[in-house]
Amino acid sequence: MAERRIGIVLNGATGRMGTTQHLRNLLDMRREGGLPLANGDRLVPDLLLAGRDAGKLSALAAASGGARWTTDLHSALGDSANDIFFDCAITGYRAPSARAAIAAGKHVYLEKPIAPSLDEAVGLARLATEAGVKHGVIQDKVHLPGLMKLRMLRDSGFFGRILSVQLEFGWWVFDGFFQPSQRSSWNYRQSEGGGLVLDMYAHYRYILDRVVAPVTRVVCRTAIQTPRRADERGAPYDVDADDAAYALMELQGGIIATVTSSWATRLRRDDMLQLKIDGTHGSAVAGLHDCRIQSLVSTPKPPWNADAKQPMNFYTQWQDVPDNITYRPSFRACWEDFLRHVAEDAPFVPTLLEGAKAVQLAELAYQSNIEGRWIDIPPL
Ligand SMILES: NC(=O)c1ccc[n+]([C@@H]2O[C@H](COP(=O)([O-])OP(=O)(O)OC[C@H]3O[C@@H](n4cnc5c(N)ncnc54)[C@H](O)[C@@H]3O)[C@@H](O)[C@H]2O)c1
Q: Which of 192, 214, 255, 325 gives the lowest tally of CB atoms within 10 Å of its CB?
């Protein structure tokens, strides 16, 4: 049993996702002595934290047990000690760094969305494939217990014929004037890769494709519901990227999905992202962790009488799907799968082509918003 080192450049390490998800999970892996491989070896990540702010990077590196750090991405990519380039910096600047990494012969792993436009996204997928490097995109949500339970229900035939899907996402994001905003200002600027559709439809494409059925058509209306916000320094700015979107999607088999997303809504449902599936034999509703079901035979017949108060409490009529297995933390699962793909050629689903499909759904949703019509989603 040997220990094998693997050099990983973590670009955008000081950001929210960089620090709280990617770095944390990779450090956990190191602490545990590395990732066990099929032949008994252990793969130990050697991290190089990359970004723009030397002060923040050196502090984060020190707090991470003395990880390497740099503000010089070009040199990092030229160094043969680094095998993988990972990018979780802001969306708008991802594609040029990824192209440079591919040209330097690095394996590339990218946060979603992999690029702001379909052309760039497909270009990245093609470049990486032609260069013969391993490539992938983060698809964390399919590893969450709630969505894994939904997939198990689908695969077990629980739903019968799936009729419809309701996807609801969002919460209130403060505008930054009287309380700090929970999201960075780039999210509300088109030029930096902002926009809810680009950000979230990148998740919805793989969630729907992998948990329910492939998406075939979309019609979408976007909105800017909070047109003026204050940035990280308190300076006011005009928002030019969508912060809400309302869509209908059609999935293979004629399944209709209603997809509601907003950063200007207050929560009254089980979770911040909720997915409900109705089928001929049963229905299920899942948040990120919990999933509740109601089968055809346990479906009640509530009285429809507008003059009388409803006697049934519909929330109590569902049954929990139990936690029968131990779920891997979702981002840890992404990293384990990609590292095994790089180190031992293990099968891997979310390649950059899948990442491009996600950008395709966002781009066609924007096109539908402009043209006010349904748009077919061609195969890539
Ligand atoms: N998979 C998920 O669930 C998920 C969730 C949130 C965000 N994301 C994605 O992760 C990425 C980062 O999001 P975040 O919420 O961590 O953002 P953030 O604003 O917290 O962090 C962004 C990082 O990019 C760096 N950065 C900013 N401007 C830059 C520039 N001009 N050049 C290079 N680096 C720059 C910042 O220093 C910071 O390290 C986005 O692409 C977003 O779509 C994914």
A: 325
